[in-house]
Amino acid sequence: MTQKRKKIAIYSISFFLLFIFTYAFPVDKSTALLIEKELEKNIPEIIKIRRYLHMNPELSNREFETAKLVASRLMALGLDIKTRVAKTGVTALLRGEQEGLTVAIRADMDALPIQEMTNLPYKSLNPGVMHACGHDIHTSIVLGSAMVLQSLRDKIKGNIKFIFQPAEEGPPPGEEGGANLMIQEGVLEDPPVAAIMGFHVWPENIGEIYFTPGPLFSSSDTFQIGIQGKSSHGAKPHEGIDAIVIASHVIISLQSIISRSLDPTDPAVLTIGTIKGGTKANIIAERVILEGTVRTLTETNRMKAAHIIDEITRGITSSFGADYTLEYRKGPPPLYNHPELAKDLLPTLKTILGETKVKTIKPQMVSEDFSFYCQKIPGFYFLLGVKSLSQNSMAPLHSPYFNPDEKSLSLGLKLVCHLLIDCLEKMSPHENDAS
Ligand SMILES: [Zn+2]
Ligand SMILES: [Zn+2]
How far is the CA of 29 from the CAs of 64, 152, 177, 320, 418, in angstroms? Predict the structure, then answer.
């Protein structure tokens, strides 16, 4: 072969190889392969961790052993960790090898006061306590994502903060806890977190995810109304002030807030869950206590509903000559999926799951304290299908029979890893961006 031909051959081979590596194996493809490899390596351990957590559930603000396990695994990975955040919370920071912003992923760790009724070989060993909301799956997936992504640090443009949060189901009475306290204790700072992601297992087909841009979940406030009347003999109602009759008027009138005072295109729910009052069939009741919940998808409706509950109760009780007290307790705000962030992450979801498996869902009137993070920074929250394809239906969340398909672990893990990497990639300044 002549010198010239040799040169041409070398150039051609080099060009061919360059073409192959540039187009046939773009960066994201090679990252996907690495994620797949790390996932396969780690998944048996993740399943073990999930089963351990399922067998050892702990109530809100009491996630001591769960937090210990999480912290020890994160420490073994060499991550920068903080413990006892908002009581039992744990955070870990993974620093990517490339410059960039910080995104966070949050898992909740607490279980519920429910006696498990499944026959699983790894059912709860803690009587009266069960992971009936799937937070064992959330914790395992996010812990797994730290294990996988730690091996891919050179592919990561920025930092990832892993947030393991206690008390999503609400702290015990008289205690603080949950997302709000995590924020107060600085989880969104040092370094500042630019966006946050979260997810929840959902009793729909495995392989599918559900989300919607904008409001996804409602706020959840509770209230207690005390109606103070005056007792008298049941045969002489005119000598007393009947707190039960007044309470009945209040209950019926409160429903008119939804039907008459709030915009019908902006859904809201008002439920009175308990009525307690009276002592005997033939005594006019002196006192009634009502307890209820208000759920809205917007802050406007939320503020309006709280205000009108007070107005109606005041008006009705005063017209009967009774007194009242109203204790209105604000819970999580509506959960708002940042539309731009959702738009940026949609291609990732569709690539992994397939176009038809990424489903939009109507806003749900349930709540999740992840919404506190979304009030501060852009947030993205999705629902991960966990119903086995062999089942027609599955026990709902908070059921003693709740049993998510474990295959959701590897799928959730894959999604979380890709979402985090792609989110950082999308948010990092690009060379051709205007300065
Ligand atoms: Zn729950
Ligand atoms: Zn939950």
Answer: 40, 13, 41, 72, 11
